[in-house]
Design goal:
The chain is built from six helices and eleven strands. By secondary structure, it is an alpha+beta fold. It folds into two domains: about 55 residues, no CATH class; about 130 residues, no CATH class. Bound molecules: zinc ion (2 copies).
């Protein structure tokens, strides 16, 4: 599998999202209808600006139809474990990801696949060539369940092991990247960042169910 990454500056929308992402506060509100919501709540993606909006349950459910031609889309809450599926060494080398972890997602508006990963400057984005994602999915058909815009493929490279591959909600990715931005030290992130990454993976593994190809939608 060959992926050529074209390093680019993080998109303005993502940076804005990371900056403006409200800290969990006592008086958090639905950004669509202003109803008060709890600290733990769902999110909706604005497909044009890529902004992530906090949503109450009724607003969230309004946008849960992934096939609808809507401006907003609810972020699903599923986590899937793709077992032994991993990116190969060459792919990792070309992505040049310092912490050996990246989120890949499809941007449906722009018809492109983005890899983003934490680094010294916050989130860094690489655009994958158009055919790269198709090539990955052709080699691993189970990845076709990944929904564009709202779900990401979390890939991790671990020295001495095969690494791992999970499907995660996009809001969980942004949350980790935002958290790491405040902890990052030096080139590889340092101890605190790695502790946060390990804690994140423990949560992901705990919430994931094995991907069942028979249940593919
Ligand atoms: Zn609402
Ligand atoms: Zn929120």
């Amino acid at each position: 599998m060959i992926i050529r990454s074209r390093p680019s500056t993080p998109s303005a929308a993502l940076l804005r999202l990371l900056r403006e992402r409200p800290q969990p506060a006592a008086a958090e509100r639905c950004e669509m209808c202003a109803e008060p919501i709890g600290e733990s709540h769902a999110h909706v993606v604005d497909l044009d600006s890529r902004a992530l909006m906090c949503a109450c349950r009724p607003c969230y459910l309004l946008f849960s139809d992934q096939q609808a031609h809507l401006h907003y889309r609810a972020v699903p809450e599923r986590y899937l474990d793709f077992g032994g599926l991993t990116l190969d060494e060459r792919t990792w080398d070309e992505l040049q990801i310092p912490v050996g972890l990246a989120f890949l997602f499809r941007n449906s508006r722009q018809q492109r696949t983005i890899a983003f990963y934490p680094g010294p400057a916050g989130a860094t984005e690489s655009e994958l060539p158009l055919e790269a994602w198709d090539t990955i999915v052709a080699a691993n058909p189970e990845l076709a369940v990944l929904l564009p815009d709202v779900e990401a493929l979390l890939v991790r490279r671990e020295r001495g092991s095969a690494g791992s591959c999970h499907l995660v909600p996009i809001d969980a990715c942004y949350e980790l990247v935002g958290q790491l931005r405040t902890l990052w030290r030096g080139f590889d992130g340092g101890r605190e960042a790695h502790d946060a990454i390990n804690a994140f993976f423990t949560r992901v593994r705990g919430r994931s169910r094995p991907h069942d190809p028979a249940a593919r939608s």
